[in-house]
Amino acid sequence: MSVTADSRVAARSVFPDWRFAPNIGGHPDVYEIENQAVDRAGHVLGAMRALAPWANASLVDLGCGTGFWLPRYAGAARVIGIEPDPALRAAAAARVVSGAPGTHVLAGSAEHMPLPDGSVDVVHARFAYFFPPGTEVGLAEVLRVLRPGGRLVVVDNDYRWGEFAELLAVAATQPPSRTAAEVDAWWLERGATRHEVRSHLQFASRPEMSAVLGIEFPAEVASAWLRRHPSALRLSYGFVLFVVQA
What we know:
Elements: H1 3-14, H2 22-26, H3 28-41, H4 43-51, E1 58-62, E2 78-83, H5 86-99, E3 103-107, E4 120-126, H6 136-145, E5 146-157, H7 163-171, H8 176-189, E6 193-202, H9 206-216, H10 219-228, E7 234-245
Parallel strand pairs: 1-2, 1-4, 2-3, 4-5
Antiparallel strand pairs: 5-7, 6-7
Helix pairs in contact: 3-9, 9-10
């Protein structure tokens, strides 16, 4: 095995809840382009700020990956990125050193957060771990580290709206409407509020768009969509944000 593969095997022994993410884990450079496409619209970050303001707060980006979002939490008193994947964590740490003062990156996972009880105000989880069912331990761990009144904001796909949802439906192994109903019910039972954000991915070029679709969907699904939309640089994308208050 390579050095990266060896380090990931070791990380799984420390964080057994961690599951390797083939999109960002296998293609971090392309996932960076996907994050840029999300960020150009600004809708999701704006909604997250409105739902759980972080001005002068202590914020955790749980499953921070390569740390793309860490510099964007301007105004927070403290920003902590937590990431189990050693390769992604190293990239996040390098990004912090190069331009995100007051930000730290730690080894950890949803079920193993290296933080004291009641020590943070906001926890963000963007497509990281929180895909119910089976995430009860991770939710309990987040609630442990949140201060009373603190908030967890989880970003998930909207399976009911947008061109991205249509692609998910083509690639899905079960009807997306069923997945959406199961996810909604799980969060509702745990007291979460549900918020829809209708946005889009905006790409700088067709090669960038093709690369991103290629890491998110089977090749035949991605190529068929690109053929049907030969000049598109934008893909409509619906997000659902679940918010739990400690």
